[in-house]
Amino acid sequence: MPITKVLIANRGEIACRVIRSCKRLGLKTVAVYSEADAKSLHVASADEAVAIGPAPAKQSYLVIENILKAAKETGADAVHPGYGFLAENSDFAKAVPHAGMVWIGPTPETIDDMGDKERARLLAKAAGVPILPGSGRFVPGDPDGLAAAGEAVGYPLLVKAAAGGGGIGMRRVDGPGDLKAVVESTQTLAEKAFGDGSVYLEKLIEKARHIEIQVFGFGDGRGVHMFERECSIQRRYQKIVEESRAPNLPLETLSKMAESAVALVRQERYRGAGTIEFVVDATSGKYYFLEMNTRIQVEHPVTEAITGLDLVGLQIKLAGGDALREVTQDKIAATGHAVELRIYAENPAKNFMPSPGPLKTFRLPPAGDGLRVDTGVREGDQISFHYDPMIAKMIAHGPTRLAAIDRMLKALDETSIEGVATNIGFLRKLLSHPAFRAGDCWTGFIPAHAAELLQG
């Protein structure tokens, strides 16, 4: 079905990002907005905009009926979910085509398969992808076999929500004495956060790297990868710096990881853009499947920077019926190095607590000369406590890793934000840290260097 008008079921930076690709493709756009976002940048950027409810996301951006009503009223013939909110909601993925519109994303069945972390592990194993030692599912109120499972997996281990993601519903256990209590508390959290209290156990890699492979499937058993992203620099299990390519990993390991990711894409006949995430043991160099995200990622611009591809544009074209036969593995090449920073309204000195408030001053450096700037806010806008406090992403591209890092440092020096606390000073220290510049990336980097990064 040809696409002429796309409704973006999201807000902020990603909504603005999707709108840009739609405009490049000559498509009309529809924004949706809550009461808090009535004067936001994504509303101003779209051809049309429709109010969908009060500020809380549960009353607006998460209400499927309101979004479908907006699409019908405006004559939108396709829906792009962005990331977050309803992007990995299989009910939404079913409802959109049922209402006569094109869903720009993978099938609902794939979303369900990969959204259940235990099921995803089994599917990855069937595709020949290495997986970490782990257990079966434990539902609330049924601890039968828990102690034995803990011993079989080995300590330390992680208790993980089967329906979780993004670091939510994940707790460390160092010994058998704590296992039962941690499982019960994680089940309670998972039930509240995801409506599913089941958890499973997974071996914890002490010095781990978080590497993800950008993949694209065509829905017919074909699939390609667009190289890897290094996503190990995290706070509270959430990424704040991403880059490509990954430093200090053998090309042979990266190639095998990419081949594993594509094998899973082909097996599942995956459709559209997705990301397959791996944990790499920084000591042994071995890699293991972590999860698959069935959507565009926050960090997709680093892949676009090194490949020259428009991932959102490819999503839209495929959904509109273009088989994309020209997108083949041999034509996808990586040039140079790219680094992305997430700029947040948050206070690093207070455990990165969000800092809502007005953007009294908001000046970002101009794009160009190796720099891309993605944002969904303007000077005078309010950073609301209702939503994620990310203000902007900056992506620097250069011929080498150090050139990209130095370009980013220059961009940070040209950035001025007042009215809210931000992580800019923290990011500047991080990029300047000798260990980071040497490529010593692992998920414990920030805690290990907290004294230096958080001083002053």
From TrEMBL:
Domain ATP-grasp: 121-320
Record GO terms (molecular function): ATP binding; ligase activity; metal ion binding
Key words of the record: ATP-binding, Biotin, Ligase, Nucleotide-binding
The keyword Ligase is annotated on this UniProt entry: yes
Biotin carboxylation domain sequence ranges: 2-451
InterPro entries: ATP-grasp, BC-like_N, Biotin_carboxylase_complex, Biotin_carboxylation_dom, Biotin_COase_C, CPAse_ATP-bd, PreATP-grasp_dom_sf, Rudment_hybrid_motif
Any Pfam family hit: Biotin_carb_N
Protein name per the record: Acetyl-CoA carboxylase biotin carboxylase subunit
Source species: Hypericibacter adhaerens
